[in-house]
Design brief:
The protein is an alpha+beta fold. Helices cover 38% and strands 16% of the residues.
Length: 312
């Protein structure tokens, strides 16, 4: 009997201890917040792998920086003229001497090519110059100002996509004008779909590789400095991304070439024969040139490569 009473006493004492330690019964501290946050895991014991999340990077009010920058494999290249890949390769001098149409390009193809060649981010301005008062506001307060123009000329390539479609060429017939306007409308709508544009004004900033760095939707009067600050922030992020993209392509044989007028192109040498070179740009554009049209540095590089390969 005495031994039974002792066993009961020990059991009661044990259950009382469990309640005190929070292992049973009502926990008096259940509403007290944990000093280690909702996970109750000390910082030094938390996961340090990618499963813990990815830090948010700057680059606009709706950044979509790509995790990996795509490189076009040789077998998937889009040739200079996709409808006629066997067409004679154009001269590099001709491609580099194509004149700019103004501060804002109107062709996405030309703007993209300039962005790659010049190593500058591309700013796309989706506007409706006829119907949107805020498009007119951002134009007059920011894009038409000299200080922005000087900064943009040095830092970015600009592309304007206007929903106000009007083929104003006086040489076009009524039928041709209607056809031109249909083509222009299709072009604008395709770009809007691709970049998920829902209204005007909208800005999209891309790195030279084509990765979306930032999206900036809408505009308010007086917000010139704020909007310009977002664009500057995106330009800095795009420039950093471009360095990594360029370094990756350099490992694949791409390098910067320069002609006698100091115009540059980032391309890979695909063929060399008797002083004639065939070059391939990352977007698939092909061109040819001769040693005599290249800079002294490029010609010295060719001489060095010929020695390495025991070429005469």
């Amino acid at each position: 009997m005495i031994r039974l009473l002792a066993l009961i006493s020990i059991t009661v004492a044990t259950l009382s201890s469990c309640s005190i330690l929070g292992l049973g019964g009502e926990d008096k501290n259940k509403d007290k917040p944990s000093p280690f946050g909702p996970t109750s895991i000390p910082p030094q014991l938390r996961a340090s792998t990618s499963d813990a999340g990815t830090p948010v990077k700057p680059g606009g009010n709706a950044s979509e920086t790509a995790n990996k920058i795509a490189f076009t494999p040789d077998e998937d290249l889009v040739f200079t003229d996709p409808d006629n890949p066997n067409e004679e390769i154009p001269e590099l001098t001709t491609l580099l001497s194509s004149a700019k149409r103004g501060p804002w390009e109107l062709s996405e193809t030309i703007a993209k090519r300039r962005s790659i060649r010049e190593g500058k981010p591309m700013l796309i301005w989706f506007t409706d110059s006829e119907k949107s008062p805020m498009c007119k506001a951002i134009s007059s307060e920011l894009f038409s100002q000299n200080d922005f123009g000087q900064w943009a000329e040095e830092k970015i390539v600009r592309l304007r996509v206007d929903s106000a479609i009007n083929a104003k060429d006086p040489d076009l017939s009524i039928e041709d004008k209607a056809t031109r306007e249909v083509d222009m409308k299709t072009y604008v709508n395709n770009l809007k779909r691709r970049y998920k544009i829902l209204g005007s004004p909208s800005l999209v900033l891309l790195s030279p590789s084509g990765a979306v760095i930032g999206r900036y939707r809408g505009y308010k009067r007086g917000n010139r400095e704020f909007t310009w600050g977002l664009i500057k922030q995106g330009e800095a992020a795009a420039s950093h991304s471009h360095k990594a993209w360029k370094a990756d392509l350099e490992k694949k044989g791409y390098r910067e070439w320069q002609d006698r007028q100091q115009r540059k192109v980032f391309a890979k040498l695909t063929n060399y024969s008797k002083g004639t070179l065939s070059l391939l740009e990352p977007d698939g554009t092909r061109s040819k040139t001769t040693e005599g049209k290249l800079s002294d540095e490029d010609r010295a590089w060719i001489v060095e490569q010929k020695k390495i390969r025991n070429m005469e």
